[in-house]
Design goal:
Radius of gyration: 35 Å
Low-confidence stretches: 73-103
Strand order of the largest sheet: 10-11-15-14
CATH topology of one domain: HSP40/DNAj peptide-binding domain
Number of helices: 9
Mean pLDDT: 84
CATH class of one domain: Mainly Beta
Oligomer: single chain
Number of strands: 15
Helix content: 10-25%
CATH superfamily of one domain: Urease metallochaperone UreE, N-terminal domain
């Protein structure tokens, strides 16, 4: 039998609070949405089963006495394969069914932990880069404000008359091998062992209702699309006003009209006239900080030196003007790619000046340089040589 205490890493005399803390710590680590290590999904299921048993007083008591709180019989010996009786049939369950043996699961608690919730939040590139605190509207189950989670409009729950508080009913069916007893949750109390005579009209006895609320989510600097923020106990409130599950906020970054993000680097394209690229110039470029009111004026732009003779496709690197790194210090770089624009419309005077320049440079009849390196490796190397900065 599985050692649930070992699964959660708690002693056998652990309190309910210790069990809850251990479960939440492990669940946050092995949740399939956040864990990447192999076997996380199976580990998460084991943790959930251990918490289901140890957080329920009746199931825990049954487990401590050697019973199976999940209602599974052991399989072994010839009982594991009773082919003559219609396929696999657990021998322990067969004996228990015929003679009324076997441990009862007992009534289940009305108070249960709520489900985890996932919501999505869209950010601008500047918000993702520098961090922000944003209000987020969440539609989840909350504790009923009328009955405060009890589910009752007045009075305590009473013992179910159908199952006498056991939460289960047993049915007996005759067969050629004897009486077969089957146990199932009580249909009257739904397995709770008690009924609520006067259910709350607001929540219909659930102890919770759906409502919209707004929470402030703190986004750290350097996040990107797909990152998730984990907010403990901000998810769905459980039945009976039980503890809330966790809330996961999945982030999506809106595409920027100017900057392109590549990891922690930013890329931008600057178009320059042919004359400026030939003679050299300086360009004042607004940085991503210009979109934030809390950034000082001297950080909202950067001056880029474009050397004379710059070719189209040249990339100029500005250090530490990219995205702050999410884990670790420092920032990425800003890559500025220069595209040289050739004039398409010239008046007579401009055309004459260009002809004179061509004569001075002996380029009136230029030679075309054909690159025959069409192989993949040669072509790639040529492109790197041609457009490298």
């Amino acid at each position: 039998m599985t050692d649930y205490y070992e699964t959660l890493g708690v002693p056998r005399d652990a309190t309910a609070d210790q069990i809850k803390k251990a479960y939440r710590k492990l669940a946050m680590r092995y949740h399939p949405d956040v864990a990447s290590e192999p076997g996380s999904a199976d580990r998460f299921k084991q943790i959930g089963e251990a918490y289901e048993v140890l957080s329920d007083a009746n199931k825990r008591d049954l487990y401590d006495r050697g019973g199976d709180p999940m209602g599974r019989g052991g399989a072994g010996g010839f009982g594991a394969n009773m082919g003559g009786f219609g396929g696999a049939f657990d021998f322990t369950n067969l004996v228990d069914a015929m003679f009324g043996g076997g441990a009862s699961r007992g009534p289940r608690s009305r108070v249960q932990r709520g489900q985890d919730a996932l919501v999505r939040l869209r950010l601008t590139l500047a918000e993702a880069a520098f961090g922000v605190t944003k209000p987020l509207a969440v539609d989840t189950a909350v504790v009923c404000h009328v009955c405060h989670g009890s589910g009752s409009a007045g009075g305590d729950p009473v013992t179910c008359r159908t199952c006498q508080g056991h939460g289960e009913i047993t049915q007996v069916q005759r067969s050629f091998i004897g009486d077969i007893r089957t146990t199932q949750p009580c249909p009257t109390c739904r397995g709770y062992g008690t009924t609520i005579p006067n259910p709350c009209g607001e929540c219909s006895g659930e102890g919770r209702v759906r409502a919209s609320r707004t929470i402030n989510v703190k986004i750290p600097a350097g996040v990107s699309t797909g990152n998730r923020i984990h907010l403990e106990a901000q998810g769905e409130v459980g039945p009976g006003g039980g503890p809330a599950g966790d809330l996961y906020v999945e982030l999506g970054v809106i595409e920027h009209e100017t900057f392109t993000r590549k990891g922690d680097d930013l890329e931008v394209v600057v178009r320059l006239p042919m004359t400026a690229a030939a003679l050299g110039t300086t360009v004042t470029l607004a940085t991503l900080e210009a979109e934030r009111d809390d950034k000082p004026q001297d950080e909202q732009s950067v001056v880029i030196d474009v050397p004379a003779g710059t070719q189209s496709g040249t990339r100029i690197t500005v250090k530490d003007k990219g995205i702050p790194r999410l884990r670790g210090g420092g920032r990425g770089d800003l890559g500025v790619t220069v595209l040289v624009q050739t004039p398409t419309k010239l008046n007579d005077e401009q055309s004459e000046l260009l002809r004179q320049l061509a004569e001075l440079r002996d380029e009136t009849v230029p030679e075309a340089h054909v690159h025959n390196r069409v192989g993949s490796k040669g072509l790639i190397n040529w492109l790197k040589e041609t457009f490298s900065g």
